[in-house]
């Protein structure tokens, strides 16, 4: 039995050794990234039993990612290394203020070999939450959208909660393509974890009350709008709450904060915490992630979050 499962593409992420425009960066550190994978690692570090469905290239980078993910304690029984498809790459640019851009090399993704028929219904049935994102949908907007829809329909059939982070990457598809595809997934979604721009793109509205009304139309019961340094606004069937951000030690690299927030939100939901506590926990994780360089390196262990929120004493090791 898994608490959480997710499906998506992973990449070798090349983090620049120095800040500034990428065309002047001469060396990079080889790390691992990918929105769904970051989320899975975030959940595993919090102590959730987590599984990841994917395909990687049968190459050195694919083996490295597989070993890394296994080392993080994520179940990889639904991950295969496939011949003829290179493992995807992502080069990052990080500016002095911590903001950044990504440059993808993910055409012919190994996940092209992941088909509707390869989905393991039993694997989905035994989970509590299926988390999907718009990144995987965009990687192959025809096949993967069908795949996500199938995974969501299996989840619904077995009362598995479906969570969606639209994670809209306009380098991978247009606004119109993203809206059309993700709108077909929304009716199966129970939890929506989105940014303001993404909510506007999906629903054509930005005010929290309007977003909420749209979510209710789609039967979405829980969710949050992530507001960067302003924290997040969350909702459940009874209420809407805005919770201010937690002050990060330093903003070093903002990539991955949303995935970390998502992991924290889902963790809190699975503990049956009230919305206020869930948002505080998820905001704390987001603030911890932005203070570390790398997409998932800053994702905290449960104990680290509890020290940060003051619920646990720091023990020097
Ligand atoms: N500069 C920041 N200061 C404090 N918290 C932050 C900051 N940036 C992000 N966060 C936290 O991380 C969450 C996700 O970040 P955000 O940038 O909104 O999402 P995304 O990475 O999906 O664009 C925010 O809701 C907030 O809790
Ligand atoms: O998978 C992709 O396409 C990526 O861009 C990898 C990034 O690590 C995450 O997508 C970060 O996403 P945020 O948490 O929203 O900053």
In words, what does this structure look like?
GO terms for molecular function: 2-dehydro-3-deoxygluconokinase activity. Keywords: Kinase, Transferase. Its EC number is 2.7.1.45. InterPro entries: Carboh/pur_kinase_PfkB_CS, PfkB_Carbo_kinase, PfkB_dom, Ribokinase-like. By secondary structure, the chain is of the alpha/beta class. The chain has one domain: 3-Layer(aba) Sandwich (UDP-N-acetylmuramoyl-L-alanine:D-glutamate ligase). Helix content is 36%, strand content 23%. The strands form two sheets. A nine-stranded mixed β-sheet has the order 5-4-1-8-9-10-11-12-13, sandwiched between helices. A hairpin with a 5-residue loop joins strand 6 (88-94) and strand 7. Helix 1 (35-45) packs across helix 9 (257-270). It is globular, with a radius of gyration of 18 Å. The two termini are 33 Å apart. The model has no long low-confidence stretch (mean pLDDT 95). Bound molecules: adenosine-5'-diphosphate and 2-keto 3 deoxy 6 phospho gluconate.
